[in-house]
Amino acid sequence: MTKIGLVLGGGGITGFAYLTTTLTVLSQITGWDPRCADVIIGTSAGSNVGGLLRGGTPIEESLDDIMTLPANPRSMERLRELSGREQDRQIRVLPTSIKMAVRESLRGPLLRPGRVVSGLLPPGNIRTDTLGDRMIELHGTDWPDDELLVTTVRLEDSERVVFGKDRTDIDVGTAVEASSAIPGFFRPVRINGFRYVDGGVHSPTNADLLLDRDLDLVVLVAPMSVNSYTKGWMTFNGSLRLYWRNQVQREIDKLREAGHKVLVLEPSLEEARAMGPTLMDPTRIVNVVLQTSSASRAAMTESQLGEELDILRRAAAEGQTASPADGDAQPRGKAS
Known about the structure:
The protein is of the alpha/beta class. The chain contains twelve helices and eight strands. It has helices at residues 12-30, 45-54, 59-68, 73-82, 98-105, 113-120, 129-139, 172-179, 238-257, 269-275, 285-299, 302-317; strands spanning 4-8, 39-43, 147-154, 159-163, 189-191, 194-198, 217-221, 262-265. Strands 1, 2, 3, 4, 5, 6, 7 and 8 form an eight-stranded mixed beta sheet that branches. The chain is globular and about 50 Å long. The model is unreliable at 85-89 and 322-336 (pLDDT under 50).
């Protein structure tokens, strides 16, 4: 059987829209169902999409759901709360974790600026419970049989911590809440006495977790990146996107050096502009979906990605597929 690894990066509300749109287009072009990936790595928004996929939710359904939100006043009100727009924010000045900032600063040239900044930011006060509630509805207290890895960073020692089915002390919902806790924005999630924040503090994608895996293809979707070094600075948050792209590119290079084929899907300049500067603006959802639907289809051409697309078609032909209209279709290992 063809083995596929799926890496879903972070990116807030607009990143969720980018992820669901890109994967829907990819599925339409190749017939491959992302629920059938042998392993899914989820970071922040990617952990939400990964949790939905492992819960059996078709990617087209997740895209439809997010597209209906702007037309629903109650849903938009809740999204504005999550984005901080409707919050009476309590002003906080103390750093979230001065220990993490100092520890990371002492790493010299190996330091990750994101960890330093995250440690110095005051803690956010928006709870991520709503994100976890949906996962609990799908999974209860059990992890899915098909592998899902959710990335976080532990504030006390600034270490990346990856949650999966080997962690019987934590459910999928809590792991997704922690992975989504953007420093300075969302409240850190406390697990067994330790505080955890967004896995994006370590990396926008954490694709290096697949280095030692036996896979025919790694599909990497990186909403926080940008597909052009020369034009990336022309976005609202150009310097950040170029920094994130460097991180992602280093992981891609390592994967390829280890012999992996990697299908990289990153926002174009137009898609990055559609997402806006904060990645948490719910009013941009429709524009992101429209831009991404067009741009991703244009990018997934045979001349550029023919070999990688053929691998996914082969996986689909082996039964790793589900009809977009078939909500009861099951992922790899559960199909009849």
